[in-house]
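Please discuss these two lines.
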Amino acid sequence: MKKAWKGLIGTVLAASLLAGCGSGGGNGANAGTAAGGNAGGAAEAKSVTLKVFIAQPRLKEQYDKFIADFAAKEKAEKNIDVTVQLEMPTADTAAQILKTRLAAQDGPDIFALHAINEIPSYYKAGYLEDLSDQPFVGKLLDSVKPSVTTTDGKVVAVPLETLSWGYLYNKKIFADNGLTPPTTLSEMKQVVEKLKANNVTPFLLSYKESWIPQLVLPLAVGALVNTENPDFIERMNNNEGSFSEMKAMFDIFDLINANGTARATEVGGDDGAAAFAAGDAAMWLQGPWYAETILKSNPDLDFGVAPLPINDNSKATMINLSASTSLAVSSASKNKEVAKDFINYVLDDQASNAFFQSLKFNPIATVHTFESYPWVNDATAYVKEGKSYQDPAIPQSVKDEVGKALQAYYAGQLKQGDVLTALDKAWRDFNKVNK
């Protein structure tokens, strides 16, 4: 998820290749014979406009190239002229835009969803095409496939991102100051004090986009559910729990805010990535999905991923494992054949490696043979030690609410109790609609 341009960035890519008679007897020639009535023996190309909706504007360049390659392949193999209308809103606006479009029966053919938080409700609403019989399904890693599989066993999306995350830290700054990632909140306070004593700003703050401060919520819930409150999610789903049980998240959030860079509400994700790449702070409450943007600013930056301490129980300091951005096909699409071709092209045997590497995403399928990135190895070390948990299933509407509430809390407009009450209400409202 995660992105810094305002509004929508639309791009239209049309890739057309001439289908000549002397193409060597390939699919184009076969299509021409089947069509008949064409004196030259070549079929007239079918034209399809495919609408694609992905809230990752910072990666527009990579998607543009991938889409152009897909269109060329579709023309060469199926004699279909594909025009892809790519819409890339920011993460803060995407959910509402998509819901409005789908409700108005004007939705895209392909759209991105968060696998854990959004697929269940969109599937229940009937918006998702069953993709269980598509070739890509057999390529998914066993650890990834469940994230895009419904409770009744249907695969309804192709995952793009699998994540192992907590916070990012500048390895050189840590080494220069003789520091290692802390395992408790008290140790984090000591790290903060040593950095400040050496005139290093501990944390980069970037709260212009509400999805960024909300990151503290899944980290806190994941840590506490796996140590102290194992049935929290179940009780919240039954209107029996309360976010007052998660109040500990303010201990780390307050520490971050009191020791961070200035003008947080003016700094978005891309600006934050550039500042982190420049060494403006030692740590950033952010995930490795920003790796490509960070390294674009500073290709030589050595950064790592570590679990965020929530309290003084070191067992609660764990890496969050999740599958997030996934591409689904609309059940109402009038271009399902081409949409499914696109979905399968995401895990194409030849094209997928380069695509995922350009995005700096983790391998998610058997066709991915590229070497893992250093920050992936950092997180994997914690996972191998049993210091990880599966991303908690928090409704997206609750995450949206906490993002806005924590922005207001940082600005001094809300108190802790106000935030917790707002989250309880958001989850109850979700239950009313989804029960």
